[in-house]
């Protein structure tokens, strides 16, 4: 869990993913020589802060978004949401502006719901604030801010260790409307003729998806993936014997939205561990679901 903790501690809200991109490129450079197959690494200005790793003769691409939720300082000690954080009065926020490091508290007006901060001075406008990372681990679970989606990034990196054929794409902006997957999907489709995808992200514990009972395969959210592709994934998962659950929701979304709305004929399916206390500093995921998620991705990328 040391790698997961490190990922959670790196501030990378939507639009400012560069610090995590730099960490990932350094990690890949350091660890790729020990992976089963050496990937082609695509990164740079034409991909903004995204990264594409190409292994062998790819048939399937994994998309994992590297950004997180947070807040932007406005005027008069006001804050604006980045994505959809569950703002709770008194939450610890951290950041840095031209005057130095910041550790402040989130304020929520009881009457209006307006967001602000409590700090010893005014923070420079445009400064990004993220949750203070308090990473906790027990025998059964891990709890921290930003498990969504640093756990998806962790899974993708661990998948790289044994992946022989496939593409791993680290995307940006997912928490705040998306935008990067469209050009990633176009590049991957045109250059490698790959058009089937797995969305490596974190879903929610609900009345039908329970913690500790395995990774969730989403049959639908606000969008509906092509049924024949999802059924292939279900058959592979059932044959593997790996614990998993089926999710059916009428709202929410992921990088799959951009794949379905894009100009190329992509098949996609969301596969991810469920978490509790979503978009708070205390996101909670069971280790059994983490294990299920990684093992299921290893099988799916081999069999699809």
Automatic annotation (TrEMBL):
Keyword check for Metal-binding: yes
Organism: Hymenobacter edaphi
Gene Ontology BP annotations: proteolysis
Keywords, comma-separated and alphabetical: Aminopeptidase, Hydrolase, Metal-binding, Protease
Protein's name according to its UniProt entry: Aminopeptidase
A molecular function GO annotation: aminopeptidase activity
Similarity-based family: Belongs to the peptidase M42 family.
